[in-house]
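Tokens as discussed.
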């Protein structure tokens, strides 16, 4: 497929490289800031654009990979929907549901195919697990383990952002805010699903 990358992010570059490594062609990249755009141009050796609309209009891709700042993502989605171009959007999708809902609804209205990365909490298995808890068919859970290991700050290099931002993020890592691991032994699934681990309270 012929793909474009709308806006820069660590994860966006990752999924774009994955697509490229699997034989898809990156034919255009976009970011409103010069430095990230130049880096994307170098990464994928293709033209760069300062707006999503111009990238889509000139490149005419089969699909778009959307990433970047959460406050900008709804605008990138709208640009794809206006042109009926399928898209895959990286988390966190938007800064709030109210900003994302209109473009999600218009995407559905016009039948524009869309995909989301990391939609774990919307997975069908969550509903199945809740039903099994209610009817008693799941049984008793004797071990619950969850682990999230994000790695060191160096994994983000060469993501371009200023020294102040780098220092702020490093402080969060040192405080354990970016990556943590935990193990919980719980006597029932209900306690695990209802937030025993502190990460599942909204499941």
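Sequence:
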């Amino acid at each position: 497929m012929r793909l474009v990358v709308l806006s820069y992010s660590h994860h966006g570059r990752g999924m774009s490289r994955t697509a490229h490594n699997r034989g898809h062609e990156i034919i255009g990249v976009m970011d409103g800031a010069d430095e990230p755009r130049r880096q994307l141009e170098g990464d994928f050796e293709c033209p760069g654009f300062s707006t999503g609309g111009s990238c889509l209009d000139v490149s005419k891709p089969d699909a778009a990979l959307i990433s970047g700042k959460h406050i900008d993502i709804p605008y990138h989605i709208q640009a794809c929907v206006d042109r009926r171009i399928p898209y895959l959007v990286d988390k966190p999708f938007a800064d709030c549901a109210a900003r994302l809902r209109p473009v999600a609804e218009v995407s559905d209205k016009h039948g524009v195919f869309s995909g989301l990365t990391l939609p774990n909490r919307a997975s069908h298995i969550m509903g199945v697990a809740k039903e099994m808890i209610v009817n008693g068919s799941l049984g008793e859970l004797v071990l619950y383990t969850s682990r999230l290991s994000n790695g060191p700050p160096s994994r983000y290099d060469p993501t371009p952002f200023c020294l102040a931002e780098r220092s702020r993020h490093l402080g969060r890592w040192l405080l354990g805010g970016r990556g943590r691991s935990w193990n919980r032994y719980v006597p029932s699934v209900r306690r695990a699903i209802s937030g025993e681990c502190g990460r599942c309270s909204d499941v």
